[in-house]
TrEMBL record:
Keywords: Hydrolase, Signal. The keyword Amino-acid biosynthesis does not apply. GO terms for molecular function: hydrolase activity. This is Class F sortase. The keyword Signal applies. Transmembrane segments: none annotated. It comes from the Bacteria. NCBIfam families: class_F_sortase. Residues 1-36 form the signal peptide. InterPro entries: Sortase, Sortase_dom-sf, Sortase_F.
Amino acid sequence: MPARARGSRGGRAVATAPVLVAAALSLALSACSAPADRPLHLDAPAPASQPVQAAAALAPSPPTWIEIPRIAARSSLVPLGLNPDGTVAVPSVHEPMQAGWYRYSPTPGELGPAVVLGHVNGDGQDGVFARLHELRPGDEVRIGRADGQVARFVVHRMAQEPKSGFPSDEVYGDTPDPQLRLITCGGPFDREARSYRDNIIAFATFTGTVRGG
C-alpha cells in the first residue's frame, strides 16, 4: 500500500502520495514549456538550510495574494483543485504570471504545509516563479489572506528534485508548525518533452503577521 500524504487540515489525509507526485509532475510537464532550452538550476553553491523560529498558527483563511520581494514576484492567488485524473489543476499556461494555492492543503499560516504553485514560463514569456531558483534561506514571502492578515514566511531551505523523485512526504506531509511550499519547474530542459526535468521547491516557515497589501 502506498504511504498517504497526511494533510494538516483537521488531521485529514488529502491525497495518496502517488497522486501528489503526479500533481507535481503535471505542473512540470504541462505548465512549464519554454521557447528555448536554457537550464534553470539553483544558484551554486547550493545554500545550506537555515533554522527559522515558527510563530503560533493562525485560524484558517483562504489566501488572496503572494509577494516575494527578492525576486520581484507578486500575484493574486487562485484556488486550485484536482483534475479528473487526480492531478493538481494549475493556472492557465496562457496566464504565466498567475500563481495558485492548492486548496486541499492548509491555508497559509494555518498548521501544516500550505502549497503554492506557479509557472516558470508560458506562451514564450517568463512566469511568476521564473526566478524562484534565486531564493536563499532567510528570504521573505508574504501572503495576504481573506481575513485581512498578511502572513510572513521565511525561506529555510531550497531544493531541486528530479520529477521522478519528487519528495511528496516532505512537501505535503504533516508539520508541527505552519509552513509554506512554493513549487515550479527547473533543471535541464528536455527538448523532446518540451519541459524541464526537475522541480524547484522553496520550503518556508511562518514567522507571524505583518502589515502589507
